[in-house]
Design brief:
This protein is mainly α. The protein has helices at 2-6, 8-33, 47-58, 61-68, 85-93, 117-128, 141-171, 175-180, 186-194, 197-202, 217-242, 262-275, 283-289, and strands at 41-42, 137-138, 247-249, 257-259. The chain is elongated, with a radius of gyration of 26 Å. The two termini are 38 Å apart.
Length: 313
């Protein structure tokens, strides 16, 4: 029926696109539509499903195809409503040519048939989202990206801050100081690194799976180093967000996260690598931080509640 009305070649092209579109939609649903799940939030009304159009518009066909690369086709099931896609394509290709040579890529999208697509997407949400979704707050895409980046940065940094706090408590001689050590701020963490505590006391206090607990020496350091790197990066990101030097980046053609000033984009990873080296050197990171002033005028804007957190997806 599709080949009869739309043409043999257009139907084949649509069938070939199905795996790519499916992979792109899965990526959209996990990365974008579900972005606010840890926050108890949803995108704007109509954008839970409608935002997929933004991703399709921003990504060229070759880019979308990479999302489907390496994915196994679904295994046939006795209750499948259609034959496998490859079989359907082969059957359609056996049909005689119908002299419809129009390029399917130039055809208008099906949404062009709708008078009010925004209203359709809003009503679609009302019929497909679970009932409890009605009580979730709605946030703009930019606000969602920023809130998620902050939540991720807090989550990534908390294990490092706890480990440093415990190391400082064990080092303290005064019982009152041992009992009262709060979660440290960014400068306190860097000070602890400068005093040699990272590999002497902090690293062993960062949670790790049981199979990694037996590692020693360089193997142990190399296993835990990415966690220290991400924890420190999370603290830096929170500092930059509080100082108004980080901006949300929805990045429909990539992965959402926060955009940092050019100097930080160029130098941050190297500065973090130096800070978490076998012999930590915090000077490059401190040099970058010298130009960052927290908005609320204290030494550290870290909260006590809890990839690099800059991007996810």
């Amino acid at each position: 029926m599709a080949a009869r009305h739309a043409g043999r070649d257009a139907t084949v092209a649509a069938l070939r696109a199905l795996p790519v579109v499916h992979a792109a939609h899965t990526h959209y649903w996990q990365t974008y539509a579900g972005m606010g799940r840890p926050l108890g939030a949803l995108p704007p009304v109509g954008e839970v499903h409608g935002g997929f159009l933004r991703l399709l518009a921003a990504r060229p066909g070759e880019d979308l195809a990479t999302l489907a690369a390496g994915r196994r086709p679904p295994r046939p099931h006795r209750y499948d409503s259609h034959p496998p896609t490859a079989e359907r394509i082969a059957l359609v290709e056996e049909l005689p040519a119908d002299d419809r040579a129009d390029d399917p890529a130039d055809a208008p999208t099906a949404l062009g048939l709708l008078r009010e697509p925004g209203k359709v997407f809003a009503e679609l949400e009302a019929r497909t989202l679970p009932h409890e979704a009605a009580g979730l707050r709605r946030m703009s895409w930019d606000d969602l990206v920023m809130a998620r980046a902050v939540a991720d940065a807090e989550g990534w940094s908390r294990p490092l801050r706890l480990a440093v706090a415990r190391a400082l408590r064990s080092e303290a001689r005064d019982p009152d100081e041992q009992a009262g050590t709060a979660l440290p701020g960014l400068e306190e963490v860097l000070d602890a690194f400068d005093r040699g505590l990272l590999w002497m006391a902090v690293a062993d206090r960062i949670p790790k799976p049981p199979q990694a607990a037996r590692l020693v020496g360089a193997s142990a350091r190399n296993f835990i180093r990415p966690k220290v790197f991400d924890g420190l990066a999370g603290m830096v990101h929170l500092r930059l967000v509080d100082a108004g030097q980080a901006a949300p980046d929805i990045a429909w053609s990539g992965c959402p996260g926060i955009a940092l000033p050019e100097e930080w984009e160029k130098s941050m990873d190297d500065a973090l690598d130096a800070a978490v080296a076998d012999t930590p050197d915090t000077a490059p990171l401190r040099s970058l931080l010298a130009g960052v002033t927290p908005a609320w005028g204290v030494s550290d804007p870290m909260r006590t509640t809890g990839s690099s957190p800059r991007r996810w997806g």
